[in-house]
Specification:
The protein contains ten helices and no strands. It has one domain. The chain is mainly α and 191 residues long. The longest helix has 26 residues. It is globular. Helix content is 79%, strand content 0%.
Length: 191
């Protein structure tokens, strides 16, 4: 039962799902800086749809098909960097409000740094922890109020990933730290 619960939590808290929740919450609760439907739709495409496509694509792309979880993880990182890069480009071209640019930049930096840590340092920093911490911080920054309660998701995700044996505490803390610093840097640069 414990592993099944951990797996359900893990599915619900994948980075694209968390991004969708964050974007939707910002769209419906925040000021006019998040009200443009076009920017919302593009954000959902770049931060949610493209990254989540890695999961079904892994089953059909020959290069990743027979690589199991490692192939899925590699393809997920490729789709994440692609989506986040296209997000920044479209935000600049479409002159998106700076709050969207803040989000794209934070996600882009997180994706690049996690990829470098995983590839160059050969440390499996948690994209899952990174993908939860980012939206939590963004909601706290832009919405405030009760958004602080979203921090309770962090230990739940840690428990889930540790229970499933997907990450060590060090890898989870590293993923969380990357997101934390990238989001703060993004806010500092754009505001």
């Amino acid at each position: 039962m414990e592993k099944k619960t951990a797996k359900i939590i893990s599915y619900i808290t994948i980075a694209p799902v968390m991004a969708f929740g964050m974007l939707t919450l910002l769209y419906f609760t925040h000021n006019c800086d998040f009200k443009g439907l076009t920017h919302y739709i593009f954000s959902v495409i770049y931060l949610t749809v493209l990254p989540i496509l890695a999961y079904p694509m892994q089953k059909i792309l020959p290069k990743f098909k027979d690589k199991g979880r490692d192939g899925q993880r590699k393809l997920a990182f490729i789709m994440v960097v692609l989506g986040y890069t296209l997000g920044i480009i479209s935000a600049l071209i479409l002159k998106a409000p700076k709050n969207y640019l803040t989000i794209y930049l934070g996600y882009f930096l997180s994706g690049i740094i996690l990829t470098l840590i995983n590839k160059l340092l050969k440390i499996k920093a948690s994209g899952h922890a990174c993908g939860v911490m980012g939206p939590v911080l963004i909601c706290i920054y832009f919405i405030g109020k009760y958004s602080w309660l979203f921090l309770l998701l962090i230990p739940i995700v840690f428990w889930s990933r540790l229970t499933m044996g997907r990450h060590t505490l060090r890898e989870l803390l590293l993923g969380t730290s990357v997101s934390f610093f990238c989001i703060l840097l993004s806010i500092a640069v754009t505001h």
